[in-house]
Amino acid sequence: MRLPASVLVVLIAAACGATGCQPPRTVRAAVKPESERKPAPDFTLKDSSGATVKLSDYRGKVVLLNFWATWCGPCKIEIPWFMEFEKAYKDRKFAVLGVSLDDDGWESVRPYIESHKINYRVMVGTEELSQLYGSVDSLPTTFMLDREGRVAAIHIGLVSKSKYEEDIRHLLDNPVSAALFRPN
Known about the structure:
Layout: H1 5-19, E1 38-39, E2 44-46, E3 52-54, E4 62-68, H2 73-89, E5 94-100, H3 106-116, E6 121-124, H4 127-132, E7 141-145, E8 150-156, H5 161-173
Parallel strand pairs: 4-5, 5-6
Antiparallel strand pairs: 1-8, 2-3, 4-7, 7-8
């Protein structure tokens, strides 16, 4: 049985409405020139094990900072890629950090992390953190941070795996400022 296109559109809209997901949209952003990069807002959150995660502790690394939720379809597509990136590039001073914006917090997030065996640090974000990052209201939203903790690119919506990998390689291959190696 073949459904008319108008019926399919209504069914898809109803499914998205029931799950709360945004219609998929992609924003491709090129890595900004260094002179146009602004510092990423620092934050301190607890990860799934209760350990403190402070963004500024990642200075010196390229960071893929992903805002996501367990109910978000496009997020579920990207997470396995991020796990691959964490494994492939961690020895090159790269890290993936996930910030869940699930309303029920760890109740949904902890089982999701465990069942999907996520290999990078995941925290539960707050409304205040969302506001610091420009009112994150579309998921996924991903910030690519350079080694100096500056926002080099922002991706809103589902972005191709190859685009993320292109950004990661670009940022990893850039020379590191000597200022990063000053003793604290």
